[in-house]
Design brief:
The protein contains 8 helices and 5 strands. It is an alpha/beta fold and about 150 residues long. α1 runs parallel beside α7 and α7 (about 125-135) packs across α8. The model has no long low-confidence stretch (mean pLDDT about 95).
């Protein structure tokens, strides 16, 4: 697989796109055979959606894939995936998730590992700063997004 940094940069670009649209700056890309096959960003605000987290948007934009294709893919996400997005990873059998940061929010990473998903935490300052700056300015919207 190409350098994880390039794919995480694409996820960060998606997060920035979401912020520019007035949404929450979280982004994701789905990679198979060293190429991006799906991109997405949190669009709950933009679409008035209950479920369009970045990972869900990314999977939707990747379109229908076979089980074998999902098993060859890696999901890159700027933030640790929540319960809903982790469930999608398990449902489709995505074997690897690369996480930009998990200090702002930590989803069920231990559960994903226990279910056989390989997780890589990059500890990206760019991802953390982007989201923490947003939270400082739009805390109420952030808490709505994570169900608090």
């Amino acid at each position: 697989m190409r350098d994880s940094y390039q794919f995480m940069q694409a996820a960060i670009e998606e997060a920035q796109r979401g912020l520019a649209e007035g949404g929450i700056p979280i982004g994701a890309v789905l990679v198979m055979d060293d190429r991006i096959i799906g991109r997405g960003h949190n669009r709950r605000v933009q679409k008035g959606s209950a479920v369009l987290h970045a990972e869900m948007d990314c999977l939707e934009n990747a379109g229908r894939l076979s089980a074998a294709e999902y098993r060859r893919s890696t999901l890159f996400t700027t933030l640790s995936p929540c319960d809903m997005c982790s469930g999608a990873v398990l449902l489709y059998g995505i074997p690897r998730v690369v996480i930009g940061e998990n200090q702002t929010f930590r989803g069920p990473e231990d559960y994903l590992r226990a279910r056989g998903v390989a997780l890589t935490l990059l500890g990206s300052d760019d991802c953390r700063t982007l989201l923490q700056t947003f939270i400082a300015e739009h805390g109420r919207l952030w808490h709505e997004d994570i169900g608090e």
